[in-house]
Design goal:
The complex is a heterodimer of chains A (292) and B (430).
Chain A lengths: L1 H35 L17 H7 L2 H33 L5 H13 L2 H11 L6 H8 L14 H27 L2 H10 L3 H12 L1 H17 L2 H6 L11 H11 L3 H30 L3
Helix pairs in contact in A: 1-13, 2-13, 3-4, 3-7, 3-10, 4-7, 7-10, 10-13, 12-13
Chain B lengths: L2 H16 L1 H6 L3 E7 L7 H15 L3 E7 L3 H14 L5 E5 L3 H6 L13 H8 L3 H4 L3 E2 L2 E2 L2 E13 H6 L11 H11 L1 E2 L5 E7 L6 H11 L17 H15 L14 H6 L3 E7 L3 H7 L4 E4 L9 E10 L5 H14 L2 H11 L6 H4 L2 H9 L5 H5 L3 E2 L7 H16 L5 H16 L4
Parallel strand pairs in B: 1-2, 1-3, 8-9, 11-12
Antiparallel strand pairs in B: 3-11, 4-5, 6-9, 6-10, 6-11, 7-8
Helix pairs in contact in B: 10-11, 19-20
The chains are: A mainly alpha (292), B alpha/beta (430).
Amino acid sequence: MTNRATATIHGWLLLLPAMACLALFTHWPAVASFIESFHSTPKARRPARFIGLDNYQQMLADPIFWKAMSNNLWFALGTIPTSIALALLMAVWVNDRIAGRTLVRMAFFTPTILPMIAVANIWLFFYTPQYGLLEQITGLFGARSTNWLGSQDTALYAITIVAIWKEAGFFMIFYLAALQAIPPSLGEAAAIEGASRWTFFRRIQFPLLMPTTLFVLINAVINAFRMVDHIFVMTRGGPDNATTLLLFYIYQVGFSFWDTAYAATLTCVLLALLALVAFVQYGWLERRTHYQ
Amino acid sequence: MDRREFLGGTAALAGATALPGIAGAQSATELSFFYPVAVGGPITKLIDAYAADFEKANPAVKVKPIYAGTYQETIVKALTAHKSGTPPVTSVLLSTDMFTLIDEEAIVPFDDFVKTEDDKKWLAGFYPGFMENSQTGGKTWGIPFQRSTIVLYWNKELFKEAGLDPEKPPQTWAEHLAFAQKLTKRDASGNVTQWGTQIPSSGFPYWLFQALTTEADAILMSPTGDTTYYDKPGVVEALQYWVDLSQKHKVHPPGIVEWGTTPKDFFEKKVAMIWTTTGNLTNVRTNAKFPFGVAMLPAHKRRGSPTGGGNFYISKKATAAQQQAAFQFIKWMTQPERAAQWSIDTGYVAVSKAAYETAAMKKYVVEFPPAAVARDQLEFAVAELSTHENQRVTKALNDGLQAALTGTKMPQKAMEDAQAEAERILKAYR
């Protein structure tokens, strides 16, 4: 009995550092935000007081919040499937024995290792009207000049494309690792049976990659809601909030307006949203991904 | 080391890091100093050199300059530090953040430090245009340091090509439009290859817009910072002019024009005239491969430009000794010779008349006359838009401007919406 108690204590002690960090930097801030969202923002001359659901009512009436929300959903819809599909395509391609394989892999992976701020600055000049790279190419075909980042119709697409460009290379690495873990005997067997390249991919590679796809999907969803860096550099949420995403708006409310209670409220919504997505992914999707 | 020693050591270490001000006060007063970088050039090197020179002259003070990013990042860091209890003793922040800093009780006024005749003369020496964003309620809360106005840069080569006198910039809005029409080039299929004029509208469109509203003889806010006038006729007229430049006359690029790439557009000869800060002067001088001119902005009902840029502030939470040392440092930094050299190195406007009377500055202005334009324009300058909850009230205007410039709202409607939003926020401060 005492032995068991000692073992238990040892176990907990080993867990303690990680648990303390997790509680301090993850759980406590979340709980604190939740509590703060029911209070007013403290000012130097007026301490915080309990105001119930006022912040949430303010949020529901805030057009910029709804704009940020719909922008974010479009952004997620634009980035997630495309970047995953691209990643898969690139991984399958560079997994084959093609000439200059290492070079191509490196080229695909490069966007991932560049700092986001640098990437945003580069793309800022790609998108520059008239002499930017994009304009120079479309100009060859006689297309009209477009102000990609400065027009309400195109700004969010422009931002989305940068995110896809940045993400796809990163996800490719996971797919590449998974592809190489597939036993070569399966490929040999398929070859003996005379299966086509497409059948092999559809019936063998793709199903075996499902756990990786789930992992990548979870990452992609999280990233879609946490990608903000390039917005600071490229549009600052403009024109007229056309590219304001949820996290960018939270930053703005929290650190530009110093309305910390309202920022906490928005944070709670973001947390709830991500929790819901995680619940669906782990609770429902995961059971269907493993190939049996 | 036994356990007691270890704990004692840890406690001492924690004490030393938590209270650097008190620990340092026994030997030398430590002066932490946050500053942003907003224009090109080796700003950090210049600041470090100033700090070292100051320490040489004042051995009792140790200056610790800390580069803190853009203006926006610097105020985030300074206010976060203030809220956690150990803010920088002094920092350079936007002059427009004055009301926000007062509301957070983060700064102290300078009036209590100004005691001698010499101090009073120093405080009275700054250009009144710059003091408008530094004083409120009869007190001085900020000291002008890296300040600017908006000026017009024009490409003399393109003026000559268009049959205009390359030495004559536009004097009025009508002329500005007429020149821009002559300077706009289109190819056979009607695509514009060179724009006449360009006023950037990303990030802080309100600042450039304020030049237009001032020229239309409208003001955007009350000096007390609790009321805005976004929907007044002069303001709408100014926005209509800006929108018309691109949507009706098609002499200005459509949509939102990026602030950061505007100088580059000018270097690439994609645009003949640009409106940007005088802080870009050294940048344009280095990179423009054609003769260019710098002029005051064109007038409409009057001339005008808002001032811009950063002030020195002193933290309320610093010790009395630190505050006094910060005052000494700020006074030292804004002496005429130093202000003149700072202006020459960066392109910012020197903050006092005495700075323009120094030998170094006189020589520089003779060699490079554009350096005097921003100073001369100061006579017509007004306070930059600054209110309580400044960032939020300004965002209301920015959103309205961008909506009008991208064509989703008519100017009148855009300004009415912006005013309604500002009204909602500012009601609490009256």
